[in-house]
Structure formats: structure tokens, C-alpha cells
Amino acid sequence: MASLCARAVRQSYSLVASSALTRTSPRLLCTATQQKNGHRSEEDTEKPEQSAAEKVLTEEKTQLEEQLKEMTEKYKRALADTENLRTRSQKMIEDAKLYGIQGFCKDLLEVADILEKATESVPKEEVTTKNPHLKNLYDGLVMTEVQIQKVFTKHGLVKLNPDGQKFDPYEHEALFHAPVEGKEPGTVAVVTKVGYKIHGRTLRPALVGVAKAP
User: Fold this and answer.
1) Disulfide engineering: 156 pairs with which of 28, 172, 199, 202, CB 3.0-4.6 Å?
2) What is the model's pLDDT at position 213?
3) What is the pTM of this model?
4) What secondary structure does DSSP assign to 100-147, as a single string?
């Protein structure tokens, strides 16, 4: 009898536990489903936020790249301008060194012209030991002229005596054109005043007469 009672109690307990488990399981399933759906909704909410942040970062990156490109171009232009300025300045310094004395040299040309005319005006037949004073004066003029030409050469000054050469308008100044026997047309027939160049640049053109066809 006691055994039958114990069996009946166990069966009753099993039925109660089974019904309680049956009642609570849908709630647990519902809660799990809601939590899962909640996580999904949070992920779906975060995705648009991340997309917006990525868009902002992309725009900022594009702007920074454009600014970098612009600054690079400005830097390159500044470097080119600086190099051009340096080259021009260097050229000006070199020109100043080469041609800074051309005004002084041009004034000395008149002295050289006077010395040349003085030596040419002395009759060569009178320059003898019989006339020592004239000879000494003539020799002194010649030595002075030679020395001044050495100084001119030292500083890049070169005499232009284009007698018989082809007329060059960059180095010669034509005073007249006339037919000259034995001279080809277009050549220098007469040199009335020699010219000078300084470091390849014409300082004073030679004054010449040019032969032309008869």
C-alpha cells in the first residue's frame, strides 16, 4: 500500500513539473527571440552611423589630398621662381664684374686715340739719333700706347681695326659708302677711328667707310 502511494506521488510530481516546464518554455523562447532581435536592430542602427562616419572621413581625405596637391604645386612654383631669381642675380653679378668698368674704359679710349694720333703724326724720317729729343718723345709715346693696350687686353678690351673686312653693323658704323678701286663692295675701305669690344660686347663701333659697286 505504501509502495502504491509513493508511486502515485512520483507520477503526480512528474506531471506537475512537466506542465510547469511547458508553461515556462514559450516565455524563455520569446525572451531569447526579443534579445536576438534587439541585437540585430542595434547592429542595423550602427551600420548607418558607420556609413555616415566613413563618408565624412572620405570627404575629409579628399579635401586633404586636394590641399596637399595645391601646396605641392605652390611649392614647386616657388622653387622654380627662386631658382630663376638666383640665376638672374648670378648673371647680374657676373655682368657687373665683366662690364662694371666699361664706362671707365670708354673714357680711356679717348686717351688711347690721342696717343695713336700723336705717334702717327710724327714723321718717321725725323725720328733719328740726329734729333734725340724728338726720338725720345716718340719712343715714350709708343711705349705709353703699348702699355695702355696691354692694360686694355688685361681687362678684356680688344681693338677693332676692320680694314678690308666684311662690313658688320654690330661692330662697325658706316660713315659713307663709295666705290673704291681694289675693294670688294660691302667691305671696309677706310677706318677713320678704330673700335673696341669688351668681353665680346661692342663697346665702341669702328667708324668706317664702306666700298660699294661703281
Assistant:
1) 199
2) 85
3) 0.58
4) TTHHHHHHHHHHHHHHHHHHHHS-GGG-STTSHHHHHHHHHHHHHHHH
